[in-house]
Amino acid sequence: MRDITNALLDWYDTHAREMPWRVMPAERKAGKRPDPYAIWLSEVMLQQTTVAAVRAYHQKFTDLWPTVADLASAMDADVMAAWAGLGYYARARNLLKCARAVVQDHAGTFPQTYDALIELPGIGPYTAAAISAIAFDEPSTVLDGNVERVMARLYDDHTPLPAAKPVFMKYALRHTSSDRPGDYAQAVMDLGATVCTPKNPSCDICPIRKQCDGQAAGTQLELPKKTPKKPKPTRTGIAYIARRADGAWLLETRPDKGLLGGMLGWPTTEWNEDPNGASPHSTDWTELNEHARHTFTHFHLILRVQTAWLPADAVPDRGHFIPAEEFDASALPTVMQKAYTIANATLRHV
DNA sequence: TATCCGTGGCC
DNA sequence: TGGCCAAGGAT
């Protein structure tokens, strides 16, 4: 038991990945503490998202809003625009709710314990454990996809996920460090991300190879077992991309709940087997030959694109005009950017 | 417990 | 090329 913990900590001392928000083990031993705001921001961004994708967004957010108080006082639309492209947009809405709760209910200081952190919006079991361990060195046990994979292999446990989560948590608890909880949490996750990878794991250089039952049994490539996923259906919709005579673009802020909630986008029909729903303005729409194809978590989308020029006095049924000089396609979610790229070929000339 | 919720890289 | 996968949370 204990030797696994120390083996991982020793490995982490020399193999920790550099991340802008991370306090490296040598700095931590010298007494440097992480900024809880930076750690919280990183952990929310890292939910189901790779480190490579998060780096630029974390930099942008800390540049725009250096403290949790700055973020709490930001405009909702500005935060959603800054998050555009990172996905899972409920995270951005909860990020704002959380920042405002920290300012209003915790005097602008993040609470330190798992029990207090998990009460905040957008912070679940994993993130509460990660923040309390990494930012405050509380002896919390993190259980993310990396740790699940490491434990499944370490104990050669073929119980399928997600039912196996409580079992893997029991394994993970055995090895949690009480001396260096933050470094240990990051060590297990770094191991899973760089050595005990889903495909082609580097067992030959693994610091806990000798203790690994899966490696001994040769089953590491099959683990962790997962319950099969449902196939993705294909849905179709129509995006309406219109410009007013003065060049302004017709856009619509989507409702907070549901897909792409709270994000700016083109007015569309509903997305079903066949598109149904009205256009945002009664006019002569032109259907383009090219479609925007996009795959979400649980369905494929074929988005047809229709364009139109509207008169200067047009009053649309839905959405609002954004002047050409204020329009920024990077504030749109990816599927809307794809539709824009297709439509812009014919609409770019005012 | 199951479903919903993005995106980009990888093989 | 299409499915898999990534430091999950809310409902």
TrEMBL record:
Names of required cofactors: [4Fe-4S] cluster
Class in the EC hierarchy, top level: hydrolase
Entry's EC annotation: 3.2.2.31
One Pfam family linked to the record: NUDIX_4
GO biological process, one term: mismatch repair
Alphabetized Gene3D superfamilies for the sequence: Helix-hairpin-Helix base-excision DNA repair enzymes (C-terminal) (1.10.1670.10), Hypothetical protein, domain 2 (1.10.340.30), Nucleoside Triphosphate Pyrophosphohydrolase (3.90.79.10)
GO molecular function, one term: 8-oxo-7,8-dihydroguanine DNA N-glycosylase activity
Keywords: 4Fe-4S, DNA damage, DNA repair, Glycosidase, Hydrolase, Iron, Iron-sulfur, Metal-binding
Reactions accelerated catalytically: Hydrolyzes free adenine bases from 7,8-dihydro-8-oxoguanine:adenine mismatched double-stranded DNA, leaving an apurinic site
Family that this chain belongs to: Belongs to the Nth/MutY family.
Name of the protein this chain belongs to: Adenine DNA glycosylase
Organism ancestry: Bacteria, Pseudomonadati, Pseudomonadota, Alphaproteobacteria, Rhodobacterales
Underlying gene: yfhQ
